[in-house]
Amino acid sequence: MRSLGKMSKVVVLSLFEFEGSSIVPMRAFAPQAKADGHRRGWVRCSLALLLTALLAPWCAAQSRPTLAPLPPMGWNDWAHYQCDFTAQTILENAHALVRTGLAARGYRTVTIDDCWMLKDRDSHGNLQADPERFPHGMKAVADAVHSLGLKFGIYEDAGSQTCGGFAGSGVPDGGGRDHFLQDAKLFASWGVDYLKLDGCNVYAAKGESQNAAYRAAYRAQSAALHQVARPVIFSESAPAYFQDTTDWYDVLSWVRHYGQLWREGSDIATFDAKAPNAPRFHSVLWNYAYNLPLGRFQSPGNWNDADFLIGGDGGVTLAETRSQMALWSMMSAPLILSSDLNMLSPAAISALSNQAVLSVDQDSLGRMATLLRRTPSSDLLFKELAAGRYAVAVLNRGSAPLRVELHASDLGFEPAGCRFASTDLWSGTREPDALSLQAEIAPHDTAIWKIQPAAACGVPARTGVITRLASGRHRDVEGYALCLASSGDVEACSASEGQRWTVTSSGALESSGRCLAAVDGKVLMQTCGSSDAQRWEYTLLGDLVNRNNHLCLTGHKANGLTVETCGHSPATQIWSLPNDPGYR
Ligand code: GLA
Q: What pLDDT score was predicted for residue 10?
């Protein structure tokens, strides 16, 4: 689209609606002509010629590499500084990225979060960088960041004001003109490479749903970014404003049309200079908990964002730093540091820049980790990597050391005696021919390995727990998800065999050799067979729809499993399956 002239753009935009990197025909667009055959033929022919001319650049654009084929990496000031920063703070951290070697390992985009601008626009409607924080303006900072070989990112908001109350890009409260295109042009003139668009104060007109208002705003910003002659990675915060509502899943299914990554939930705990050592690991675990069941929404180019890496900062121990790195990497989450980089210990820098762990995050398949097993104090995670390799991690959430010994059968490999090469990614210890993974894991630490199974091991079954969210507003791992049990219930997750499921290639859900079936409105376990009553279609929203009766698997805690009419994403009907290959 960028190579088209101004006139052509106007024509194309009237025929098509932008959907991020793709363009879909507008539903409302239909030929109006009711003239005779000759005229219709002429119109058709002209339209075909016009479309050919106009679509050629679009087709070329489709073959361009996506903007974020791997989870984005960088640094952002927010979680450490909030509004307490100046240009100097930003540049000191940019220099630290280079000096510590973190930039060389991939942390390359420096993003300035909220509070950089004034509350009002200038007389031309342009945003104004706060002159006290940025005495030489924003372009000077962007240039300085670029001169270090880094990328430059900035924050704005889809509403009338940012979360901090500064000038937003969106429609003013009560209605009026937005500034998405004007701001995108300004950002491009500064050399912005990455835009985080927050979602505070979004105005919904009378009769317009919140969901529709957010979608219109993010679509408008995406279209504006496509109109400026600069590739800008677009980070969307929209889903975070729908967490705990049934619209959450719908919003999560449209953001990918407009941007490359999105925040889905609550903020990670910020640093408090008045209580610098206040513990923050609970917040790391909470963001991990809500991000983990959302694998179906991500695929290379589009990423769930579990929020900043606060590892190494005040309130996060070295074991907890390792855990956040390992968990974020197992989830293919964006890795955006948000600490005072000049205060990081050498051990923290080494954990944050561990190349082997980073390679799990930056794996080209972009998979979400599968939860193989959850006990009251530990999670066992498994992730398929490119080239026949796999990553395995065990998180110790408890307060006592945890001894683990894992065999290939625990990971879904069926042949008895399956052997594999393994590397412990923290110590670098390599076992060329192992039968098990063993570790003693300190409280709040996470062990992580890469394994390469021998050819005889075959490919692992699609095995793990099947979870649904617990109703209510739980803010911890244990309270957030319930596990589907073959006893015909949803219950607190334990390591029991009855909570271990295999999703077969024909859509059966199998546990201990029996299959889940819907028969006469009841859900029960049967001898596995080929009946449609034992086949479940998994939708993007997270429904498990029975192929026989087209009803949704519904898990009422204590009252057991039923099949019911599929509703508007109630918690009882949204499931997370093992080894989700991502957006379909
Ligand atoms: C929201 C976002 C944070 C940060 C602040 C800035 O809370 O989720 O990441 O951008 O706004 O005000």
A: 30
**Has this prediction a pTM greater than 0.70?**
yes
Q: Which 8-state DSSP code applies to residue 457?
A: G
* Closest residue by Cα to residue 569 from 357, 253, 267: 253
Domain boundaries, the chain: 2-63, 73-361, 370-457, 463-576
**Max Cα–Cα distance, the chain, nearest Å:** 83
> Of 130, 143, 247, 267, which residue is the catalytic one?
267
Confidence class for position 35, pLDDT limits 50, 70, 90 = very low
Does residue 198 line the site of ligand 1, with CB under 6 A?
A: yes
Cβ partners under 8 Å of residue 550, min gap 6:
none
pLDDT of 196 strictly over 90: yes
Identify the CATH number of the domain defined by range 370-457.
Answer: 2.60.40.1180
Amino acid in the structure at residue 341: L
Residue with tokens 């110590």: 427
- Look at residue 498 and give its three-state secondary structure: helix
Percentage of the chain lying above the pLDDT 90 cut: 84
C-beta atoms surrounding 5 within 10 Å: 7
Residue 333 zone, left/alpha/beta (φ > 0; ψ -120 to 50; rest): beta
Long-range pairs for 170-179 at CB < 8 Å and ≥24 separation? 170/201, 170/202, 170/203, 170/217, 171/203, 171/217, 172/203, 173/201, 173/203, 174/203, 175/203, 175/205, 178/217, 178/220, 179/121, 179/125, 179/127
Side-chain half-sphere CA neighbours of 465 within 13 A: 28
d(CA 285, CA 296): 20
Closest residue by Cα to residue 139 from 192, 83, 85? 192
Q: By alpha-carbon position, which residue is closest to atom 1 of ligand 1?
A: 163
267 is catalytic: yes
Beta-bridged to residue 90, according to DSSP, are none
CA–centroid distance for 347 within its chain: 28
pLDDT tens for each residue of 493-515: 998 999 999 999 999 999 999 99
Q: How would you classify the pairing of strands 430-434 and 420-424?
A: antiparallel
SS3 of 501, please? strand
Question: Domain 73-361 is in which class?
Answer: alpha beta
| Bridging pattern class, strands 501-503 and 509-511 | antiparallel
Between the CA of 235 and the centroid of ligand 1 the distance, in Å, is: 12
Q: Is 60 exceeded by the pLDDT of residue 328?
A: yes
**Which residue's CA is minimally distant from atom 9 of ligand 1?**
267
Q: What is the pLDDT of residue 229?
A: 84
Q: Cα separation of 380 and 409, whole Å?
A: 13
Per-state percent for the chain, helix, strand, coil, to nearest 5? 30, 25, 45
| Residue range 268-302, pLDDT digits in tens | 999 999 999 999 999 999 999 999 999 999 999 99
Class of domain 463-576 as given by CATH: mainly beta
Pairing mode, strands 420-424 and 378-384 = unpaired
Quick check: 325 and 293 in contact, CB under 8 A? no
From CA 179, how far away is CA 575, in angstroms rounded?
39
Catalytic residue (one of 77, 114, 178, 198) = 198
The phi, psi pair for 75, rounded to 5°, reads -140, 145
- What tokens does 79 get? 């979680």
Q: What is the spatial distance between Cα 24 and Cα 17, in angstroms, rounded to a whole number?
A: 6
Of the candidates 83, 58, 75, which has an alpha carbon nearest to the alpha carbon of residue 3?
A: 58
- Say which amino acid occupies 185: K
